[in-house]
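INTERNAL AUDIT FORM
Audit reference: QA-55
Scope: verify that the stored structure record matches its stored sequence.
Auditor: D.O.
Record contents follow.
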Amino acid sequence: MYFILVLIEVYIATVGFAVLINVSPRALNLSGLVGTAGYVSYLGYQALISDNYVAENLVGAFTIGIVGMLAARYKKMPVIVFNIPALVPLVPGGQAYQVMKYIALRQPHVAFSYVMQVVMIAGASNGIFVGRTIYSSGRRSAPLVFDLASDQLSTKVNSEDETSD
């Protein structure tokens, strides 16, 4: 029962943040589901493998990256619409609060340990980029070619690829 309650709270938090940043109403439900999927993988890693907050956030962000790409493709919307709200449940708010508390209490050595936790957890959000890279590597795309005439990158290999009317 507790697990279901946590998932409902994560869904509400994700959708609430999506509303706050003006996400399109047609993407609200799916952004909540993307955030919930990321948090489920976070909790699954925590329960089944290890209680390492950095690795948990990396797995959660990786899941958000993959599921966010699928949601964006399904809704034909930018990926950022789904990824940004979905990251909210993984934000290290508790550790950031502890940093401020120990700075106010003039205990910088304790605050520094929490700062390091915040930095490591925030760095784990790169899991989104890892997931996006792996997802994109499975798709077939034309190679980039540098066109000397225009000094630009192009996906066209030669002029025969162009269609003429």
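Auditor finding: record pair retrieved intact. The longest strand covers residues 145-147.
Action required: none
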